[in-house]
Amino acid sequence: MREIFDFFVRNSKWLVFVFWMTAGCFLLFTRNPYQQSVYLTSAGRVAGTVYDATGQVTSYFNLRSANDDLNKRNAALQGEVIALREKLQSLGEVSGTYADSTAPFPALAHYEFITARVINNSVARPYNYITINKGTRDGVKPEMGVIDQNGVVGMVNVVSEGHARVLSLLNPHFRLSCKIKGNDSFGSLYWDGSSPRTAVLEELPRHTHFKVGDTVVTSGYSAVFPEGIPVGTVAGHKNNPHENFFTLNVNLFGDFARLGNVQVVVNNHADEIRKLDEENARTEGKVNIP
């Protein structure tokens, strides 16, 4: 005990110096937006290199389960392609025109996708983030959507040259405009922190028709995600007769604990849409919130 006390006495000046240096850096990078942005970009570059190395090792052990999942989905997609071709062919015969089954969907005509790999991820924290191995040199920018084979994953938050930090769907700061598939009424989906497999869809108009098991998809009312990207299924709702809106519990499609390969959504019309939104906000005298 005496030796420990002597150690602190001998090194008291250095310990005080380290304490105040740590406190000063903490206040500098958490209270000032510019310094915080510089720190996140620099730290992301260093951390991204480490995550990339560890991600290459861990991704190898997930290949078998990932391949099994892909094979199941490819079989299901093949069945859907055949059914769609038959439907398009029948519609073409009825209307007297040729239905081209290889033509792209109009809603996705101005979207491109950048494939990336998840090299760091969290699901058990109050505010969860994801790191991917693509950055500015690959065309990734802030406020781009991120999806995987199951649906919505999150939105790009901070970008360095070779990596990007993604605001996960499992983060209360991330809100997503969604609707019930086949219905134009939309609401706002967010994560309430209760489980990594569930979320909450609120502000859904009272006249909306739905049932448990219905699919929840993106509404397309933003420059981030196209319309119709799957999110989850309706698990139930909170019934309050004094409110004009429904609040739904949603079972998420995505298994965020097993994220592997993802796609960054590039909307080639994003800048044009944001400029129009900014112009509308100025015209209406409102503050634009990206």
Q: Secondary-structure element order, as H and E?
A: HHHHEEEEEEEEEEEEH
Structural class: alpha+beta
Shape verdict: globular
Q: Give the rounded overall mean pLDDT.
A: 78
Strand content range: 25-35%
Q: What is the straight-line distance between the termini?
A: 57 Å
Q: In which order are the strands of the major sheet placed?
A: 1-2-5-4-3-12
Low-confidence stretches: 97-107, 286-290
Largest sheet: 6 strands, antiparallel, barrel
Radius of gyration: 24 Å
DSSP summary: helix tally: 5
- Binned, the helix content reads 25-40%
Q: Would you count the extended β strands for me? A: 12
What brief labels describe this structure?
globular, 12 strands, 5 helices, 290 residues, alpha+beta, disordered C terminus, six-stranded antiparallel β-barrel
